[in-house]
Write a structure and sequence with these properties.
about 525 residues; alpha/beta; about 15% strand; 13-stranded mixed sheet
Length: about 525
């Protein structure tokens, strides 16, 4: 017995509450989690083989079976990345061997299996870690669901396209390995979640930011079809015209991949696969860290697939936050005199009608106009379009606008965030208990309501339930949104007029060929 093993044995003997509380049998072997206050957490459960060596930039492969019982009481390292997904969080431990998931399950089994909620974290396709305490599923699980959080390959390791990768692929495509990881995790859930008390026929996927964009893609991705019965998107979706992003076309992405390989000094695919993972995060990695429209995992853009009726016909809950960009951009330098030029520098030339939709006469108004503009451009229009497209297809749709301003501490990096990107997560996961902020009864009421709405949606495809304000169904021609504040109300989105301006611009833009030119 090693000193480390002996120390662990002594710790367990001295702390009976930490004893291995429960085991579950997966297709690859048994895993053992730890119970705490009625919830069993299984952390670091592999759902695919480590994507190392020759498996780098290939679709995920099955886990190799193991003998005995595998401990599942510690989070696996996050996938390779630089920095963090949310300002104010510590850098996560990372490793290329990162295809693991976590399960929170009720300790007491009911007669039937319970619904499953699978969370996909965000981070711009380049960051994110399931170990972030904010994402823990313990509080939602107590409301009668199994919660799963999944990792997926990020950045260049998750999304590189290259002609040689396309040539070796049986699908004649490359890129989107991170999206394939997400589909593989959902397939694992379908095959294994019953062992944890979950119902494989009642799975809801939910994600935030790039995780929500992933949800929108999974709704159209052939490998993911039939693996979920509900979808939730928080502050993200991939519906804007891809004429704005010609690099998402496979041919362009392959050329960018060739340029990236040269930037890191690799003359062949073999040399790329032999390089240490941390060396790959530099060079031109940023240009190749995004989804690609390619024949296998994403054969059409989500907008085109939805418009053609090719998406999953499942209930959808989707929405955005009132002040999204406050956590993402520095507003201190916004000036009325340079408002139009600054937007042009950030996003390229845009029609004057878009700029004129956000009037301002002084610097303070200009800062608010920039918040509103980026909210609509980067988040609100995509989620509004998602809701309308799915509503036209027939399944139930529920839309929201998160408007509450959490009590982010003065002097912290989050001090002026308001109802920003990320802000809804503390309420969705009911994790106000993780922070010693100046929470008010209004915060607690909203957290209880939102966690309840999300869980109800996972259970029945409808967020409504006793004791909460009625959430009206979103109709394609009468788009009511639930305005999540204190009190909770319903009505048209306040930014409806500016969303319609974007809608008109995008409708014109879609007449241009995809992958041929930048936006006018």
């Amino acid at each position: 017995m090693t000193l480390r093993t002996a120390a662990i044995a002594l710790l367990l003997a001295a702390s009976p509450a930490l004893a291995f509380a429960a085991t579950a049998r997966t297709e690859a072997g048994r895993v053992q989690g730890v119970e705490d206050h009625g919830v069993i957490a299984y952390e670091g459960v592999p759902f695919a083989a480590p994507p190392l060596g020759t498996l780098r930039w290939r679709e995920p492969k099955p886990v190799q079976p193991w003998a005995g019982v595998r401990p599942a009481r510690a989070f696996a390292p996050a996938c390779m990345q630089l920095g963090v997904s949310m300002p104010g969080e510590p850098d996560p431990k990372t490793d290329e061997d990162c295809l693991y998931l976590n399960v929170w399950a009720p300790a007491k089994r009911t007669r039937g299996r319970v619904p499953v909620m699978v969370f996909i974290p965000g981070g711009g396709y380049t960051n994110g870690a399931t170990s972030l305490p904010l994402y823990w599923g313990d509080r939602l699980t107590k409301r009668g669901v199994v919660v799963v959080t999944i990792a997926y390959r990020l950045g260049v390791l998750g999304f590189l396209a290259h002609p040689d990768l396309t040539a070796e692929s049986p699908h004649h495509s490359s890129g989107n390995y991170g999206l394939m990881d997400q589909a593989a995790a959902l397939a694992w859930v379908k095959r294994n979640i019953a062992a944890f008390g979950g119902d494989p026929g009642r799975v809801t996927i939910f994600g935030q930011s790039a995780g929500a964009m992933s949800v929108s893609m999974l709704m159209t991705s052939p490998p993911a079809q039939g693996l979920f019965q509900g979808a939730i998107g928080e502050s993200g979706g991939l519906f804007e015209p891809l004429q704005l992003s010609p690099s998402y076309a496979l041919a362009t992405a392959e050329r960018d991949g060739e340029a990236y390989a040269k930037s890191v000094g690799a003359a062949s695919l073999a040399e790329l696969r032999a390089m240490p993972a941390d060396k790959l995060l530099h060079g031109g990695a940023g240009r190749v860290s995004h989804p690609v429209v390619e024949p296998y995992a994403l054969p059409r853009s989500p907008y085109d697939a939805f418009a053609a009726g090719l998406q999953a016909k499942v209930p959808v809950l989707v929405g955005w936050n009132a002040e999204e960009p406050r956590s993402l951009i520095d507003l201190s330098n916004i000036r009325a005199a340079t408002f139009t030029q600054d937007i042009g520098k950030a996003f390229g030339p845009l029609p004057s009608a878009l700029i004129e939709a956000y009037p301002h006469t002084d610097d303070e108004q200009a800062a608010q106009a920039r918040v509103d503009f980026e909210r609509d451009l980067r988040f609100a229009w995509d989620d509004w379009a998602w809701a309308r497209l799915q509503a036209r297809a027939g399944p139930p749709v529920y839309a929201y606008r998160f408007e509450h301003r959490p009590p982010f501490p003065a002097g912290s990096v989050r001090a002026n965030w308001g109802a920003s990107h990320f802000a809804e997560l503390w309420y969705v996961f009911d994790h106000l208990n993780q922070e010693t902020w100046a929470w008010t009864p209004a915060d607690h009421r909203l957290a209880d309501a939102m966690a309840g709405y999300w869980v109800n949606f996972a259970k029945r495809g409808d967020p409504n339930g006793p004791g909460r304000p009625v959430w009206p169904r979103f109709l394609a021609n009468d788009g009511q949104v639930q305005r999540l504040n204190d009190p909770i109300t319903a009505g048209p989105p306040p930014e409806l007029a500016t969303l319609k301006v974007f809608d008109g611009f995008y409708a014109q833009l879609r007449g241009a060929p995809f992958g041929t030119a930048e936006a006018p």
